[in-house]
């Protein structure tokens, strides 16, 4: 039985390279590619893959929120994060979102195939560097009041923040999310109040720092 995979990464060369390598492996089929989180969620619902290999820093919707939507809205789909980020915030939020595995992009390809086999066998897989991050998190548990963009903002507010940081106008965001301009203006005001940030430039810096979007 073949493992059906969707590759989600905003860099075409990475998707093409991974696809070429994966399709040389027996029992693996890449059924689709996506360059942003929204497309990944849509394709997952449409095609029902076994596994999504998910980048974190993607346009329109980041990989963490895309993973959260996939896990909550589809059945029997597993997610492996393949990211350049080893920072504890990204690792922990991706795992909280429901990812079954987490690898760094500098991992050897053999480790990705091991991760796929491990996750499809029903076990979690973490790169050794990521395991260290998770262990340190449990040993040095943060204070309960530690805040991040994922604990401070709602999913819709994070979506609006990402689109603001990516340079979209209020009208463009409203059209993309199929809501009114006034609704987006309200979201933006709430975001600024919650974060105590009052300029688009500072919101953009915050979004990049928190991994909501990338440069």
Could you characterize what this model shows?
By secondary structure, the protein is of the alpha/beta class. It folds into two domains: 3-139, 3-Layer(aba) Sandwich (Rossmann fold), CATH 3.40.50; 149-209, Orthogonal Bundle (Arc Repressor Mutant, subunit A). The protein has eleven helices and six strands. A six-stranded parallel beta sheet has the order 2-1-3-4-5-6, with helices on both faces. It is globular, with a radius of gyration of 18 Å. The protein starts with a strand and ends in a 6-residue tail after the last helix. The relative contact order is 0.11.
Helix content: 40-55%
Which fold name corresponds to the CATH topology of the largest domain? Rossmann fold
The number of domains is 2
N-C termini distance: 40 Å
Low-confidence stretches: none
What amount of the residues lies in strands? 5-15%
Gross geometry: globular
Number of H/I helices: 11
What would the average pLDDT be, to the nearest integer?
90
User: If you compute it from the alpha carbons, what radius of gyration comes out, rounded to the nearest whole angstrom?
Assistant: 18 Å
Q: Find the structural class using helix and strand composition.
A: alpha/beta
């Amino acid at each position: 039985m073949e493992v059906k995979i969707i590759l989600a990464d905003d860099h075409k060369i990475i998707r093409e390279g991974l696809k070429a390598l994966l399709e040389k492996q027996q029992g693996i089929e890449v059924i689709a590619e996506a360059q942003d989180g929204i497309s990944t969620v849509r394709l997952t619902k449409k095609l029902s893959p076994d596994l999504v290999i998910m980048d974190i820093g993607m346009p329109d919707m980041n990989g963490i929120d895309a993973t959260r939507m996939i896990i909550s809205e589809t059945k029997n789909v597993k997610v492996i994060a393949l990211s350049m980020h080893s920072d504890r915030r990204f690792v922990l939020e991706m795992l909280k979102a429901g990812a079954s595995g987490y690898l760094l992009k500098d991992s050897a390809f053999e480790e990705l195939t091991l991760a796929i086999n491990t996750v499809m066998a029903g076990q979690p897989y973490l790169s050794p560097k990521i395991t260290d991050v998770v262990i340190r998190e449990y040993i040095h548990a943060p204070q309960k009041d530690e805040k991040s963009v994922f604990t401070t903002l709602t999913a819709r507010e994070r979506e609006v923040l990402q689109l603001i940081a990516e340079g979209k106008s209020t009208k463009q965001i409203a059209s993309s999310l199929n809501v009114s301009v006034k609704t987006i203006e309200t979201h933006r005001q709430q975001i600024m109040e919650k974060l105590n940030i009052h300029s688009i430039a500072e919101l953009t810096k915050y979004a990049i720092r928190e991994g909501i979007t990338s440069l």
